[in-house]
Amino acid sequence: xxxxxxxxxxxxxxxxxxxxxxxxxxxxxxxxxxxxxxxxxxxxxxxxxxxxxxxxxxxxxxxxxxxxxxxxxxxxxxxxxxxxxxxxxxxxxxxxxxxxxxxxxxxxxxxxxxxxxxxxxxxxxxxxxxxxxxxxxxxxxxxxxxxxxxxxxxxxxxxxxxxxxxxxxxxxxxxxxxxxxxxxxxxxxxxxxxxxxxxxxxxxxxxxxxxxxxxxxxxxxxxxxxxxxxxxxxxxxxxxxxxxxxxxxxxxxxxxxxxxxxxxxxxxxxxxxxxxxxxxxxxxxxxxxxxxxxxxxxxxxxxxxxxxxxxxxxxxxxxxxxxxxxxxxxxxxxxxxxxxxxxxxxxxxxxxxxxxxxxxxxxxxxxxxxxxxxxxxxxxxxxxxxxxxxxxxxxxxxxxxxxxxxxxxxxxxxxxxxxxxxxxxxxxxxxxxxxxxxxxxxxxxxxxxxxxxxxxxxxxxxxxxxxxxxxxxxxxxxxxxxxxxxxxxxxxxxxxxxxxxxxxxxxxxxxxxxxxxxxxxxxxxxxxxxxxxxxxxxxxxxxxxxxxxxxxxxxxxxxxxxxxxxxxxxxxxxxxxxxxxxxxx
Amino acid sequence: xxxxxxxxxxxxxxxxxxxxxxxxxxxxxxxxxxxxxxxxxxxxxxxxxxxxxxxxxxxxxxxxxxxxxxxxxxxxxxxxxxxxxxxxxx
Lengths: 585, 90
Fold this sequence. Notes:
The complex is a heterodimer.
Chain A: E1 7-8, H1 9-19, E2 24-27, H2 34-40, E3 48-50, H3 55-69, E4 73-77, H4 81-84, H5 87-95, E5 100-106, H6 122-126, E6 132-136, H7 142-153, E7 161-166, H8 167-171, E8 173-174, H9 199-210, E9 216-220, H10 222-227, H11 230-240, E10 244-246, E11 261-264, H12 271-279, E12 282-286, H13 292-295, H14 298-302, E13 306-311, E14 325-328, H15 331-341, H16 349-362, H17 380-391, E15 396-399, H18 403-411, E16 420-421, H19 432-442, E17 448-453, H20 454-457, H21 463-469, E18 474-480, H22 485-494, H23 509-515, E19 520-523, H24 526-538, E20 543-548, H25 572-577
Parallel strand pairs in A: 2-3, 2-4, 4-5, 5-7, 6-7, 9-10, 9-12, 10-11, 12-13, 13-14, 15-16, 15-17, 17-18, 18-20, 19-20
Antiparallel strand pairs in A: 1-8
Helix pairs in contact in A: 1-2, 1-7, 3-5, 3-19, 9-15, 11-15, 12-16, 17-18, 17-24
Chain B: E1 7-16, H1 21-31, E2 35-43, E3 50-59, H2 63-74, E4 79-87
Antiparallel strand pairs in B: 1-3, 1-4, 2-3
């Protein structure tokens, strides 16, 4: 074969992306990855490349794109700082099981280990935070590595896959094998568990549901969204009349106006939900890994409760709670089979009576406005509800991390699946804004809002320029309380009000937005807030509102760490009067 | 010198012969604070595509907790199979 019949590794890479159906990627060029970029713009008519202003922004944007579309995101950085800047985004995708292929450049193979310019051992650094990774040093391995990466990232329990390409991989040449003929070399990888739950195991669920004393609850997590099992979950819940609550990442997987919807569980979940889960004696978890933010005190959480755990990842069984009935497999398949195999319907009138009583006593899907400072500051949950009402729950909402994130989860009434973006596991401030970029590009035509704190917005504020460059119609709501709000809450309530380094002296966000060509408004009253929400929705492009909110409005309920769910604090007084709940650890 | 833990386990992992596979495994063991007391290696096939890694592991994890660690280890892509059992301290 003559040299002219061979293709450069960079060309093979671009072809492989096309074969994988990639239509969008986020990346920043630099040193050793320039040979790839020399080819990438020639593929521009097939694959849209977005230039974020920081690799972390690009990684989060790819993550947001993957969450709203269900497709695999792609983020690119060069070697050294370009690669290390991706680390937080990679960890975020890992902890929330999001399929993203992360591409980094590496110095030439013969220079590896010499501390060359912009050399970092990025494979070594990412090992604990990726589903898989591979170093590629030669053009002949490029297509196989890409094919394996996309297969691993978006099959089974999804997750990030990282490929580190040395410069040699781009500039050497190889014969191009037809993509469909490339064989995956993954003898150790199986997307589905082996063995999967049998019909007999699934039928055991019926015995648990049959017990007349059963008080069942379904916890629906992110796995429901990943498996696209919303319809099957609804059918199962309706058939057996079981209340369904969501984890933070499970929000938007169950219709929130449904009579069986039982709110959000967890540290800042709904009061009724937390009481109900604590009191339930049968918990059916679908696609949730029992994160410590949902169970409070593990011993109390497990007391006298039977657990059914539906998960595609068998290493999650018994990790946090001892499961009575683990059901291994894809949530959609297991629920489908359960709906067929369990013929009998169930009703739990006494259990529902208790839940309705809790709803009356504590309110449900409702909020309280801080009565003390209401004249001085806006209330965050009320602003979230105003946005929810204005958009009729139809928008994609990308929250950052902090108090506004919890209120977004509680008070935005999501009507569609794949509409709620949040850094759940990693809890990474700076996520909300770039993730919205991925969402806006991934699902053009959908209304996209960012609900952000004033701390988090400054962690990736450079992406205003990216948003403006592409005139993305993202509406940015900043909850400006001049604080790292959740930190302030913990310091107020658990550290005797010692506000150590959590107060922000903010820049003028309106001016920053305007300097980027983004129309911006400041709202100090509810009238101004309502007017601003109306105005930004009419603007055909990005727009920003900064809401001047109360720094001392705390998110309640609050389940302090290691506290049973039923001992959740419902107010400042409730928490401050009970010293037991003030243990920070 | 680390403090010796009470629980010891033997584990055998069949892995692909790829650069970094041992690093991936030790990263996972470290994440769960499991110490490698000893290890040895043998080839499985003539082409040397697979290896068996034999570990004696030293950890405070009880058998149930250790099972989770082994399941996590088995989920690593180049790891084909993991078998394990408790053993007496060496």
